[in-house]
Amino acid sequence: MTTRFFTPTITRAPFDFLDLLFASAERGTLFISGGRRRGEDDKIHPWRDTPYDLARVPLERIAADAIHRGRWEETYYSCALYAGTRRVEAQAVLYWILYADLDYGRIPPSVPLPTVTLLSSPEKRQAVWRLHKPADRETATDLNRRLAHACGADLSGWDATQVLRLPGLPNHKYTDVFTAIEQASGRTYDREDFGELPHIPYTAPASLDLRGDADGMAAWRAVFPHLSAKMRGVAMGDACAYRGDQSAADHALMCALCGEGLTPDEAVAAFLITPRGKNLGIRKGEGRLGYLTQLSVRKAVAHVGTVVSA
Q1: Which domains, ranges and CATH numbers included, belong to the chain?
Q2: Which of 84, 145, 235, 285 could form a disulfide with 91 if both were Cys (CB 3.0 to 4.6 A apart)?
């Protein structure tokens, strides 16, 4: 483990951050990604991935472009370096960093101190660990999955094509909120420094078959007496406990439903018959089922440790 002195200024934070993470990278494509939030559901559309060949484009130019985009758009950087101009898993080849989308999780004493911890939004954090030498995709995703479990982080946030926020840029979900550096140890690690992390075997979720309203009502009635007053309020559409973050409220309710022993199918059906579920049709339209099955319920299943059987 080595330490690099790291004291970014507010105006240079994106460059200082990228320089800390990727200055040693002599090849590979880094992406700056994101887009504007639009419509009633406040979703990013269209999503844009802009590739930068690090052998040709200096980090100063990449940071300047990110700052320019960040004035109006949600702006992220790719955690992996790619072998082509598409941000797809098959082209993700080099990982100079390990990462965890902590959300409300914390770094336990058993986990090395992150190189940088970012406060990405109110009370939510992202952590990165810089490596002396880049890891391949299989090694990096395994270590990222183990870090996510050890830190209580977002268990859908270890995927190979993950993007994270840049410090010093606005988080457009909120008013006057900027991604900030919470701590910067500047430490760089070898892969062996993470050898004490528990090994977590990966089981891919099975496809989900949605049930009808009758099954949803039966599942809801079964769990309702066991839900907290807070979760009952969330089910009625209240997101105040999550600072108005509807996605966080969706996830919390889904975790509560899965945590009460509902299968993923039952949890989706029960969610959809609540006022929150009905409102989801307004927020997501035809994409509501994909949102629930591909995002919320899978994250909840991972969070509560439920195994989805085939």
Answers
A1: 2-194 (3.30.70.1790), 213-304 (no CATH)
A2: 84
